[in-house]
Design brief:
Elements (H helix, E strand, L loop, with lengths): L1 H8 L18 H13 L4 E6 L4 E2 L2 E2 L6 H6 L5 E5 L8 H21 L2 E5 L22 H4 L6 H15 L12 E4 L18 H18 L5 E5 L8 H4 L11 E6 L11 H18 L2 E7 L9 H10 L8 E4 L20 H9 L3 E2 L11
Parallel strand pairs: 1-4, 1-10, 1-11, 4-5, 5-6, 6-7, 7-8, 8-9, 9-10
Antiparallel strand pairs: 2-3
Helix pairs in contact: 10-11
Length: 370
Amino acid sequence: MKFLLLFLLAGFSSYAGEPAPIDTKATKETRALYRNLHQLTEKGILFGHQHATEYGHGWSGESNRSDVKSVTGSHPAVIGIDFSGLSGRPDSLIKREESHLRKIITDTYNRGGLITVSWHFNNPLSGGGFYWKEGVSKASVREMIPGAVAHDTYKSILRRIADFLHTVKGAGGEPIPMIFRPFHELDGSWFWWGKNHCSPDEIKTLWRFTVTYMRDSMNIHQLLYAFSPDCTFQSEFEFLERYPGDDFVDMVGMDNYADFGRDGKYNLPAALKKLQIVQAYANKSGKLAALTETGLESIPNPNWWTEVLLKTITTPGLRLSYVLVWRNDKTSPTHYYAPFPGQVSEPDFIRFYNLPVTIFEKDLPALYTD
């Protein structure tokens, strides 16, 4: 296909340096992962699915299963997990969640796959959960930054996550690399860390502290940090409004459901324009670029994978590292974003899978060695 050839040949970068994580003490596996992800953008784009091996449409907790594997024979290349359960709960429940996540992470790593971590953590200073609930939620970001009244509370949350990460290791005792994506969709206001609930300086300060504390105080050196606002921006200036700086980010991306068919509304030119903004910044700063969340709930469009998603993400000039679609709920009959056997988009997804430009777990080279 002509556009696939163009995709492989496109993607000029003005950044002249050797790709390297922002953490100068990153483990050798993390450094190799970062270089390999950069190189893989010349071949194609990794496909990811949130909570893919934890549960799926009508099932939960089955070993080595995913809806994607049931359809294609391969797990996604990228598996999304969440650190939401590692704070704000009784210690016994946190320990149970740690055990659960440790198995998901190590199993994925041992198969050669990649873990990306979102963080829907409940507001530590009020009720309302991770969403903003008017009259209940507190604007907590400003109270958690260094020097503020709840800074120690935030440090205790990070310490618990760091302690967990120190226990997640490969067979040789090496810390398992992951992409960590905190404060996602920070340009919207539906989460308590969102735009209407803190200033740009406040969220940037909290982000910078998060990276430096995990890296320098907690000795966590296996994380790549991803910046992923939602799709509200129209320019690079708007995209970077809450960006913490190149020294604190390894990957730039965006979450975008609105332009890809949500509520029956498609605006693929807008989606492409925003991806081009992300890619252009990645090119000049030496960062990875990704479509960090997207999807169409229930996938009613039988050709959504090839005619909507693929045609957008393989536009010449884009060199996205991965695209991740959201989860398949285990009980809801309609809340799913990847096909399962018998779902209307299954044949198109198989066509999507079979293309050389889409990379699934079975297609991956050794990500963690040079």
